[in-house]
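Figure 2 data, in text form.
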Amino acid sequence: MRANGLNGAPMHRPALAMTLLLSFCAPVAAMVGGASVISSNAQPVVMIVSDRGSFCTGTAIASDLVLTAAHCVLPGADYKLLEFDAERKPVLRDVARIARHPQFRLKTLLAHRATADVALIKLARPLPVTPAPLADSSLRAAIGDRFTVRGYGLATRGNGKTGGTLRAATLVATGQPGNRQIRLADPATRGERAGLGACTGDSGAPAFTTSGPPAVIGVVSWCTGPGGSAGCGGLTGVTPLSLYKGWIVEQARKMGNTLAP
């Protein structure tokens, strides 16, 4: 299986420059396979951009704290949140601090193995949103369980103009889901044919539980094309939060936020 990164970091294909990124982020599409467009107004799901031209998705878990993938916020770049005002003009929000899980290893991720691909972004100013809750750390995914992924990534692989609008897709757990990795697929195609799934820009996107009130069970780390090929629309790889929730709660406390353990 050939997994693909999703944010334009070193494991991914070259990304567009920041100036081009800001020019195409009008409401178009996100996630491949015809995922449903949803309103981004008051959503806790946000878009993260870097001065190197890459972009990712994250989730506000407090008014000024965003959860995303560690490989979305690698050292050596400047990161901001991208929003749109009432006239759909881009507005950048400043980042005050970034914390990557200390056990995250980029080389491990590049080798397509599970790692602590989680990070927190402390914002300079709060967001006007209702934060998303984290799933209970005892929750485990089972084959057939359904989760909803929401992201700002591309709707067509390789076409940067198809990124920038929030879309959602309900996917099903397949393979052998565990506490280090969950593989999700379109329930209609099971990853063997092109279908719903994450693509470039969906790194860090939340996977929400669908039974009971929605809660974030993990973040998107990688994707494949159909049948394990390179591309998008096959499998969507999620890093579960169960092993890392303790670190998230403690790091949030150090950043001035109190989260439910």
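Caption note: Residues 245-254 form the longest helix (10 residues).
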